[in-house]
Amino acid sequence: MQPKYLSLIIAAALSAISVGANASGYRFGSQSVAGQGTADANGAEAADASTIFYNPAGLSRLDGTQISVGATVVVPHSTYNDSGSTHFTGAPTNGTPANDYAPNAVTAPSLYISKKLNDQWAVGMGLYVPYGAKLDYGNTWSGRYALSNIKLESVTLNPSVSWKMNEHHAFGFGIDAEFMKAELGQAVDVPGSIAALSSGAGAAQGAVLIRQIAALGGNPALLRTAGDAHGSNDGKDWGWGFNLGYMFTLDESTRFGLAYRSSISHQLRGSTVWDFSKVTTDPIVNQVLQAASHKANSAALVSLRTPETLSANAFHQFNSQWAGMADVTFSRHNRLGDLDIQFPGTTEGAEVIRQHWKNTVRVSLGANYAYNENLTLRGGIAHDQSPVQNAELTHPALPDSDRMQYSIGANWKLSPRSSIDLAYSFLDFKDATINYTNQCNPLATTCTGNGETTRGVYQTHLSLIGLSYNYKF
């Protein structure tokens, strides 16, 4: 008996952003409170130091030294209704409902600093959270063999520089140093494996298992009431990339921007820890089951690349009060096909996560209204496509779907040098249907996986609340 119980899905964990983000797939989405107020349509506005993220060429428009420090609080609401999740044997998992699996709130900070060196050169530094997720379904829900919990943390350092060639053309360049850390857990389908070994082709293996337990003084009868084991995993890595920007200023009122952010390669390295202690009340039975499954604490490794993005944006000041802006962002998500997760130093076969993401486009429109000399109001709307192709490729770690974003915001000047930004966004997701089957039979010896099928429907919406402080030296 060599069941490959656990689907180690660190790679899926890195894409589990849909209940903690306002951008599809990987991106957390809100790296600037000012940008959030216009649904991130402000790439060509370059009104504060957060232009480091949207378009580093915009640094050429900022005077003196400026700092912007902020935080966005994500308040998710998501429900899941199971519609027939099963073991690999076809039997129902009979789990408990998934309740309160999304956190009450998640906070992501940001910090940007810019400095104008002379009429042509400016530099800056950005620190922000590009990806983030936290889900805890519990160890008994119907989809536990696909995922029980996940936590993803990341941070990017983005030193940047801009060069203003003349009054019309400016260029920007930045380096991205990106750190990721993922933790996740998943149930091990011991009951399903025992059921498969009770009859048919697996009966001979089952008989051997029973004799082993009896020979060691264990109680084979407890196999009939065996529960799940559990696997816990973690991985972390630093990766490097870059971003480019170009800004064309037509006149005092109109400008256009192009921005590119490269993909980043990651080698997530970590560990896998197995816990068979709660399968039965007999430690001998549990030890024999773990040994027979060839599960030993080990290293874990997965290679992946984040998607690159290309944005085109525009800004126009209509009069002293009104300004309009727009952004179109293309994300090359199709870099993520099948992902192979390796277990170095063991005989474990690879875990294959089927994703086959598609490329996506995000379109946003925004506006500013100068109510008076101290208060500017903002608003925006955006449509964002999901990279997930269909229900068969939707995983509980990423119950993603197309969404609409509706944003409002404001900038209030406290003094000639300081101001605060406020923003609120509501994101409405389409219902996400999931019908994902892990294609590894846990009795096989050449792959890792529970072989489960998770079926259900997710309904999700988010609120984002942002606050930032800006100061000019």
TrEMBL record:
Q: Which InterPro entries match?
A: OMPP1/FadL/TodX (IPR005017)
**Annotated signal sequence range:** 1-23
Query: How the protein sits in the membrane?
Result: Multi-pass membrane protein
- Pfam families registered for this protein in UniProt: Toluene_X
Give the source's domain of life in one word: Bacteria
- Subcellular location as annotated: Cell outer membrane
Q: What is its main location?
A: membrane
Residue stretches spanning the membrane: none
Keywords from UniProt, A to Z, are: Cell outer membrane, Membrane, Signal, Transmembrane, Transmembrane beta strand
Family recorded in the similarity comment: Belongs to the OmpP1/FadL family.
Name of the protein described by the UniProt record: Transporter
